[in-house]
Amino acid sequence: MIQKVMVIGAGQMGSGIAQVCAQAGYAVVLNDMKQEFFERGLGVITKNLTRDVEKGRKTEEEKQAVLERITMSLDLQDASDVDIVIEAAVENMEIKQSIFKQLDAIAPKHAILATNTSSLPITEIAAVTTRPEQVIGMHFMNPVPVMKLVEIIRGLATTDEVYKAVEDMTVKLAKTPVEVNDFPGFISNRILMPMINEAIYALYEGVATKEAIDDVMKMGMNHPMGPLTLADFIGLDTCLYIMEILHEGFGDSKYRPCPLLRKYVAAGWLGKKSGRGFYVYN
Ligand code: CAA
């Protein structure tokens, strides 16, 4: 029975995951390295909940109850009494492996160790623990409170029992679970990133303007955002990083990152978060 959840990382993804877990009634320990990071994450959650109250989707009491279910943690030792950890720290294998090694020593024997990685191999993260059968990928989409999907990724050793517990939890979070095996980019980014990369190639080759490329996919394919706008929204550094993982993981030139993507990242044009990507943001 999953009752208490630790979320590691109070950034964009971690705070969203903490919010949906608290909304579903779970006790949530939100961990980050500094109090200011936690407070920034809690601020975003509070803003989202306030909007829900304003729009009549929640009462003020419900908002307060959700916030009360979230407690701050600045120490991984707080994992000692949780039933599941969902790690949403930076996308770096060494950092994730270090966190999982520590969690393996701290978390109760029965606890599931999940990662929100968007592309790093679950099996490789699991291999540093003594419980690889209880390690699993739980890939939420951004913005977490809005997007319905959770891609659940089985590592090589993940048991059916652990998969089922995470699938049940996902349904309780009012999300739709999809089962995927552990291959580079899973399904979401194996398909999304080459599409974005191809849109960047089309821009690079002068086939059309950025606005035209986005309009084709928005109005012609009913995508909510064009691929270049979406790339800015995700972060161009993240897009490049995931393309590199696909390229290296499959060893296939069809996943080669577009030189224009490399150039933008080298220039520090990382998308919305840096104020400039394919578009300019104020
Ligand atoms: N947090 C919480 N709620 C948010 C939000 C956020 N960051 N951004 C938007 N919303 C809410 C808005 O408040 C609004 O809700 P209400 O009006 O009912 O209060 C609703 O979402 C719609 O927002 P908008 O009207 O402002 O704009 P929109 O209709 O364009 O929707 C969007 C915004 C949901 C982000 C939409 O543009 C969209 O679906 N875009 C594509 C998102 C996508 O593809 N995500 C996946 C990215 S890839 C990923 O996450 C995985 C990876 O590994 C890289």
UniProtKB/TrEMBL annotation:
Coiled-coil parts of chain: none
Functional pathway: Lipid metabolism; butanoate metabolism
3-hydroxyacyl-CoA dehydrogenase C-terminal domain mapped to chain residues: 185-281
Domain 3-hydroxyacyl-CoA dehydrogenase NAD binding: 4-182
Keyword Zinc-finger recorded: no
Pfam families on file: 3HCDH, 3HCDH_N
Superkingdom, taxonomy of origin: Bacteria
Residues that bind NAD(+): G9, A10, G11, Q12, M13, G14, D32, E91, K96, S118, N142, K273
Sites marked Important for catalytic activity: H139
InterPro entries, alphabetized: 3-OHacyl-CoA_DH, 3-OHacyl-CoA_DH_CS, 3-OHacyl-CoA_DH_NAD-bd, 3HC_DH_C, 6-PGluconate_DH-like_C_sf, 6PGD_dom2, NAD(P)-bd_dom_sf
GO biological process: fatty acid metabolic process
GO molecular function: 3-hydroxybutyryl-CoA dehydrogenase activity; NAD+ binding
PROSITE patterns the record matches: 3HCDH (PS00067)
EC number(s) stated in the UniProt entry for this protein: 1.1.1.157
Keyword field: NAD, Oxidoreductase
Family according to the record: Belongs to the 3-hydroxyacyl-CoA dehydrogenase family.
UniProt-listed PANTHER family: 3-HYDROXYACYL-COA DEHYDROGENASE FAMILY PROTEIN, 3-HYDROXYBUTYRYL-COA DEHYDROGENASE
Name listed for the protein in its UniProt record: 3-hydroxybutyryl-CoA dehydrogenase
Organism: Metasolibacillus meyeri
Taxonomic classification: Bacteria, Bacillati, Bacillota, Bacilli, Bacillales
